[in-house]
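User: What would this chain look like folded?
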Amino acid sequence: MAICLALSLSSNVFAANKSAFYVNNAYFKGDGKYDVVVHDSNRDTLRLYLNGKNPVKAKVNKQGWATFQKVKLTGQSKLSFTKKISWFKYTPVDYTRYISVDGKQVKLSDIGAKHSYDDFYAWFTSEQGEVDITYNNLPHLYSGSSYQIITATCEDMDNSFGSTWTACMQEGYKDYLKPSTFVGDNWMGDYGTMVGDMNYVGLKNDQYKKAMQEAQTIYGRLAITN
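Assistant: Here's the prediction, encoded as structure tokens.
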């Protein structure tokens, strides 16, 4: 179940029928940051976690609202919460949602990606050792990242980029990307370009910041869900 989060609305778009705690809205603040507003029937001190990391704290006011300010939301991520029960102790709130960001639009779902973008990128760029491929009709020992190994292996199998290539690519990414990623216009268009370009994004340089955000957004569309 996925619900679109209308950023321009102040209405209670995420009110849960049977829960006193829910995400109400998220307001775009620029530079990929959002103010995330939640409702809680108790005047708790809350923490919001993005993929289980980087907690942001907010207090519930008299009207039952808490605002987590300028939370960095990109791609597809898990939102979870804890509440303060003593001076140094917090306990989990029984409420987890998955968000996906596409431009300024945010969607909320109770189903998330099997792997986060960070996990995918770490696997995608990790060195995988050496494989034997054929180059110019001669055996060649090739080493590189997961992305480079999969691409080289599939090219070795089918230089015409036909059905064998498609099947090989699907098999290589089966734990991360939907099989439809590698079919027809999807593969030859933006999605296929993203898979290749992701080998070059995620670096710390400012010039890669926009490319990384775009890759995270597209991964949110392509990722296999739980």
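The chain has a mean pLDDT of 81. If you want, I can go into more detail on any region.
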